[in-house]
User: What shape does this take?
Amino acid sequence: MSVVIGTAGHIDHGKTTLLRALTGIDADRLPEERRRGMTIDVGYAHLVQDDGTVLDFVDVPGHDRLVGNMLVGAGEIDAAMLVVAADDGPRAQTFEHLELLDGLGIADGLVVVTKADVVDTARLSEVKAAARDLVAGTSLAGADVVAVSSSTGAGLPELGGALAALASRVIARGVPGGPSRLAIDRVFRVKGRGFVVTGTLRGADLDTDAILTAVPGGATIRIRELQVHGQSVVRAGPGRVAINVGGSDLATLVRGVVLVSDAVGLVASDRWLVALRPGSAAAPPTDRARGQIHIGTAHAGAVVGRSGRDGVDLGGDEVTAILRLEVPLAVAPGDRFVLRRPSPAATLAGGRVLDPSPARGISRRRATTERLQALASSAPGSDAWAAARLDLHGALGGALAPDVAAVLGGAVTQIVADRQEIPLAELRTLAGRALRRLARVEAEALPALAAQTIEHLVAGGRLSRDADRIRPAGVAAARPSPELSAAMDRLEAALTAVAPPPLSVAARASGCPPAGIRELERTSRIIRLDDDLAWAFGTYRELSARALALAGVAPLTPAAFRDATGTSRKYVMAILEDLDRRAILRRTDAGHVPGPRAPRS
Ligand SMILES: Nc1nc2c(ncn2[C@@H]2O[C@H](COP(=O)(O)OP(=O)(O)OP(=O)(O)O)[C@@H](O)[C@H]2O)c(=O)[nH]1
Ligand SMILES: [Mg+2]
Assistant: This one.
């Protein structure tokens, strides 16, 4: 489990120094940052706790001109650590960052009073009290206030305890469901390996065989390598990840673009229906107010539309508005954002997205206060939300029963319960048919509504999804029967030979059907290098380790590797080519030598 915690606070108040004291990692990685002793762009550090929980820190700049970068960092965090220097006390960006965290709805965190070593106890108490007052009335109200000195280490054990408690609270709150989603915050090129993007992974775990879609842009992205904290992994859970990406249109991958395993629910849109809550300006932004929208790691210029039926009072400080953006951004219902005026700097509003693609044309007349309130008060992605949205759009041609989404949700859940496991594409077709029976829906709207319904059920935990297979909630992947399991064991054993028989022959001999082979591959018990060539994982690992060890001594030729393993050219070529492809080895005229990704030891 990993919890992502962002720093916040005024320039020079000791954010980066604190992370260094906590984790030993310098989040100021740019040469210019090190030269100037200030954070310019978002930085990262992490700490593995005794119970295995990982604290992923995102460090942001405190400079008043770099608030945009602060928001990139704050866009995808679970909790915040607001830093106030004991000597300076709360200053301009302490207030501003806190207001932005509040606008983004960051609901948990800590206040850390740093530089405790340079003040006396009276001053320290004064600043702690001021910090407590400061967060009252914001989303961080009641947060623990911990005093530390990053220089002497005083208070760091207490801070460690407070962070552990914070992490447990965040984990207890539960992770967002839905497809894997990663808002890109950094893109760089690595020589010989191409593009690497980094970000905070949300939603479902990500496997290296996943195909991702970029929103906006629509580029199809393959994962060449997945890394967590510099280690190559085949599967990553929520938290900081780096992806070496493959595919076309990689130049469209920039900060702000979101990669998703399934774009259902997430759209690129330049027109959003939102609920706004005023910032320090106290009054909600007026019609035609201009500002910058910051959402996730993206930002864009936007104009507020609050005329007529677009500006409804939702109660509790919130009003609706239509935002028109200069460019489309990736957005899903429920996403939090802030609307900011860069100069003179002001937080105009915090907000949440009610509908990423609101109705156009005549359907807009359906936007009544009641309908908007129904949408705003339902959990994004829930059946109630889907019903409220359909009601607002009138997509069901007036024949809509308000609970049609709920009925459809029930029908879809039943289909899955009957089948126990069903491919996603097939379920979408069946859900579309069920919806058509339930209500008059425009034909072109059917697939999206069906897909959305399934997505809501998955996000709401009523169905579970593993890649493109849907199962009832709580039902794990079908366990192989005892017979199949035994056949799989036999096949795996047959493939432990250094020179294994052809896969098809071994499978026949062990009585293992294709489903068993797939399961062995999926669970990495066997590694398949070619249609008809596979090794048991352990054997393959030994062979590749031996190749690497030999290549470390002298360039390794296929003939030398063949002699060392007592196999034949067919086997050694397959292994060497695979290691070349993964850059663990590199082919030279003299033979294979350790490649850029060879593990160092
Ligand atoms: N005495 C003392 N100095 C500290 C402490 N923490 C930070 N400093 C000093 O304060 C200065 C600023 O620290 P940084 O960690 O760079 O501050 P920052 O909040 O990351 O600054 P920006 O990234 O520019 O917003 C550095 O010179 C640190 O050495 C502390 O606990 N005690
Ligand atoms: Mg810093």
About this structure: Residues 15-16, 28, 38-39, 59 surround magnesium ion (ligand 2) (CB under 6 Å).
